[in-house]
Design brief:
The chain is built from six helices and seven strands, in the order H-E-E-E-H-E-H-E-H-E-H-H-E. With about 260 residues, the protein is α/β, with parallel strands linked by helices. The longest helix is centred in the middle third of the chain and has 20 residues.
Length: about 260
């Protein structure tokens, strides 16, 4: 199954197959939520861009949308992986991860946003995805009134990269914008150096874990070249590796997987 999945990822990446991101509910029905961006002043500093502005996005609740969000004791905001070019928050793509949290973690409701991708047809490079991550977090905190201390931000692969970017943004701009720190963060195999996939391929293939990596190089090359546009390749919000920052909360934890050479 891993080999079949690797071949599928290779074909999708080589052809740069477009990923449509409709804003209609679809099969998710009442679990779907459309989010409008907040005032532009919220997206400042590294999230400001002349070419990429905050935009409406969607997201899916698992197992269902809460009826009284402010009373929820724990909520997970999960940012999916996919090298910034594939994936979404809907059931077909993100349902298995949500089921894992619900069954094994015995957690409360989960919200997985459909952040904009740097691939076609929308082609939204950095900082679109971090803007959408912030929109999703503020939706929980400001729109629904969920206490920030009850929210865990989670992400895998490119989603892990976005979690780090969101935490960095809150640490650097949260006080001025009245954006509270989340209760905790869970990061699975974060893609901490997309810029490496813009370097010669030997940098990747010489990694001892390369041959057991089901992602290969095509997906990550595609993601890196489309996501990193208009900014320095080693921008701290794009490449967290080597760019530490002070987080106000001591209980952010990382779960590292040693298989993927890009992580």
């Amino acid at each position: 199954m891993i080999k079949l999945f690797a071949e599928f990822v290779f074909l999708v990446s080589r052809t740069e197959t477009p990923v449509p991101l409709p804003l209609k509910p679809g099969k998710e029905k009442d679990r779907w939520e459309k989010l409008e961006p907040f005032p532009k002043d919220v997206y400042r500093g590294p999230l400001e861009s002349e070419n990429v502005e905050p935009a409406p996005i969607g997201g899916t609740w698992y197992p269902k949308k809460p009826t009284d969000p402010a009373s929820i004791r724990s909520v997970i905001l999960h940012l999916h992986g996919g090298a910034f070019v594939i994936g979404d928050g809907r059931t077909a793509a993100s349902g298995p991860m949500a089921d894992l949290f619900l069954k094994q973690g015995k957690t409360g409701p989960i919200f997985i946003p459909q952040y904009r991708l740097s691939s076609r047809p929308t082609s939204a490079p950095f900082p679109a995805a971090p803007q959408d991550a912030l929109t999703s977090y503020l939706y929980l905190v400001r729109t629904l009134g969920i206490p920030a201390s009850n929210i865990a931000i989670s992400g895998d692969s490119a989603g892990g990269n976005l979690v780090i970017a969101l935490l960095r943004y809150i640490a650097e701009h949260g006080a001025a914008l009245d954006i509270p720190q989340p209760g905790s963060a869970i990061i699975f195999a974060p893609w901490v150096a997309p810029v490496k996939f813009l370097w010669p391929e030997v940098v990747i293939t010489s990694n001892p874990n390369f041959h057991s990596d089901y992602l290969g190089t095509e997906l990550c090359k595609w993601g890196a070249k489309t996501y990193i546009r208009g900014v320095e390749p080693d921008h701290p919000y794009v490449v967290p590796l080597g760019h530490p920052f002070q987080n106000a909360r001591p209980d952010a934890r990382g779960i590292r997987r040693g298989r993927d050479p890009g992580h």
